[in-house]
Amino acid sequence: MGILDVDLPPWSIDLIYGNTGSGKSYFAGWLVEQAWGRGRRFIVLDTKVKNHLGLVALRGVKLLKIKPGARYDFSRIAKIDQLVVVPTRGTISRLGVKGLVDRYYKPILDELFRRDKDRIIVVEEAHRYNPSSRTPGEELEQLFREGRDARIYMVAITQSIADFPKLLFRQAQRHFIFQHYVPNDIFYLKKMIPGFEEMNARLRRHDLVEFIPPDESRIIKRELVMRRTRHFG
Ligand SMILES: Nc1ncnc2c1ncn2[C@@H]1O[C@H](COP(=O)(O)OP(=O)(O)OP(=O)(O)O)[C@@H](O)[C@H]1O
Ligand SMILES: [Mg+2]
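YS: structure for the whole thing
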């Protein structure tokens, strides 16, 4: 069994999608571990309390817990080199994921866009940043659009790609696609990705497809995605 040779370019727009429990966050955590191993800067904006907490075991990685009602200096947050941001349980019960995103994560993304862009930005539940499935949220749109020119490296994770704005979908430089079984999603993806239906049928749970538009793709087997830190899925 080989080692996984997923590239970690200087910048990229990566989309990770698949049904719940398919392995999106596990794989995103693996990407972060690779980034850490190369001394790259990153920020993870998590929407769950535990999920990515294991990454904090990596030396130098800082943790920020968003507490309900607390105020934060977003420009200072945006300067931390290797950071995992998570909500507390209280934040989720009081604000919901939507409130967390609107009140805290969107301003952080805005800071990251306006200032220093040289880092990997991992966004969980990226669909929450969009006002509707047709309309991209301002913060995501500017980061996705600037992409290459501004050396932005975005990793956007979502469960429901068919409900993700096409405008953003088209900006992606790479897609990491887990098994899909919702007919509407499969219908959508087979129009966008050559050979998708056939690859999807071959995927086991936690396997994924790496797709590089317009037509480069391969299957990555789950055994190759080996985490060094714990993932709370
Ligand atoms: N390659 C893998 N090998 C072994 N276990 C895996 C692998 N990928 C994921 N898992 C396990 O599958 C479970 C779900 O993974 P994960 O949390 O990444 O799902 P998800 O797609 O992010 O789901 P959600 O949309 O609900 O957030 C976890 O327990 C995780 O440890
Ligand atoms: Mg997840």
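YS: worth flagging: The mean pLDDT is 95.
IM: good catch. Also The helical segments are 24-37, 74-77, 89-114, 138-146, 166-169, 183-192, 196-202.
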